[in-house]
Amino acid sequence: MIGYVTLGTNDMARAAKFYDALLGTLGAKRAMDMGTFIAWATGPGQPMLSVTKPFDGKAATVGNGVMVALAVDSRAKVDAVYKKAMELGAKDEGPVGPRGDSFYAGYFRDLDGNKLNVFFMG
C-alpha cells in the first residue's frame, strides 16, 4: 500500500550521504535521483524512502508525531541498522531492545531530526 515516504532536509548532500550509508545496510540503493529529490529502495516495485528540500522553498521541519518504521527480517539486522545510524551521527530516541513479546526495535533521529525506527516482528 505505501509507495514511498518522503522526509524533508535542509542539506541534500548531508542527507544523501547519511541515507546512502544507512539504507545500504538494508541492501537499498538509489532508485531515483533528481538532485532535489532522492529515493532509495531495495528493488523494483518495493516501497521507497526519499528525502527532498521542501517544494515551497521554506525550511524543512520535523513533523511532531511522524515516524518512519523500517521493517527488517531479524533482530541482528535491527542491531546493525541502529548501530550504523548511531555511527553516522543519528540521535538515540530509544535503544534497541524488545517492546512486548514479539516486537524488537530501536528508535533514532536522522541528521535533520526526522524520527525513524528499525524493527523486527517475531
How would you describe the overall organization of this protein?
With 122 residues, this protein is of the alpha/beta class. The protein has one domain (4-54, 67-121): 2,3-Dihydroxybiphenyl 1,2-Dioxygenase, domain 1, CATH 3.10.180.10. 21% of the residues lie in helices and 38% in strands. The strands form 2 sheets. It has a 4-stranded mixed β-sheet with strand order 1-4-3-2, with helices on one face. A 4-stranded mixed β-sheet has the order 5-8-7-6, with helices on one face. Strand 7 (103-109) and strand 8 (115-121) form a beta hairpin. The longest helix is centred in the first third of the chain and has 13 residues, at 12-24. The two termini are 22 Å apart.
List the helices and strands and how they pair.
Layout: E1 4-8, H1 12-24, E2 29-33, E3 37-41, E4 48-52, E5 68-71, H2 75-87, E6 91-98, E7 103-109, E8 115-121
Parallel strand pairs: 1-4, 5-8
Antiparallel strand pairs: 2-3, 3-4, 6-7, 7-8
Pick out its properties.
alpha/beta, globular, 2 helices, 4-stranded mixed β-sheet, 2,3-Dihydroxybiphenyl 1,2-Dioxygenase, domain 1, 122 residues
What portion of residues is helical?
A: 10-25%
Structural class: alpha/beta
| Quantity of strands, as a count | 8
Range of strand content: 35-45%
Low-confidence stretches: none
User: In CATH's first tier, which class applies?
Assistant: Alpha Beta
Could you tell me the mean pLDDT? Answer: 96
* Mass-distribution shape: globular
- How would you characterize the largest beta sheet? 4 strands, mixed
